[in-house]
Amino acid sequence: MFSLLTRQTVAAVRVLLVLTVLLGIGYPLTVWGVSHLPGLRDKAEGSLLAAPDGTPTGSALIGIDPVAPDPAADPFFHTRPSASATGPLGPGDTATSAGSNKGGFDIGLLDTVTQRRELIAAREGVEPARVPADAVTASASGLDPHISPAYAQLQVPRVARVNGLSEMAVTRLVVAKTDGRPLGFLGEPGVNVTELNLAVAAAREPAPSGG
Is 101 a member of any domain? Predict the structure, then answer.
């Protein structure tokens, strides 16, 4: 009996050691190595984005609604509103990822949507009817970095004016940062606001003078 128990214990320890090496060391190292192959490393490290000076400023996967120092001269493109925001538009709490879970007939949600539409219309200098749906409804995560091309285009005149750029130049940036439908037919095109704001900042930076 003792001999059998000893053999079983030794066999169990051997299996434990082998699986520890394979699954606890070998497998993670293999996954890490594959994820750092050319073309995959940036995504594995969080899809980080850098400012024109090279400083990491965020992730292409996380939408952070920027706050203008002077609301009367707002130079930024804005993301969809977040359910975690204390106000109707934001910014939201990036440490919290959740939707409001309110239905389409919720009176509070309808009032918030109406308020958002009026605020965005005033900010962009347009009629409320021109404000697209995604501009006034929060995403399920609250951290969606994408907006519709229509919402991006609505913001082009303001962003161009405040940043001293032409509307054509800003529109080209919008087009460059627009992602097509996944696999060519799923979902809708989206504009990555985080990447777009960095592109606008780079476009307004004066070019370095030659020596």
Answer: yes
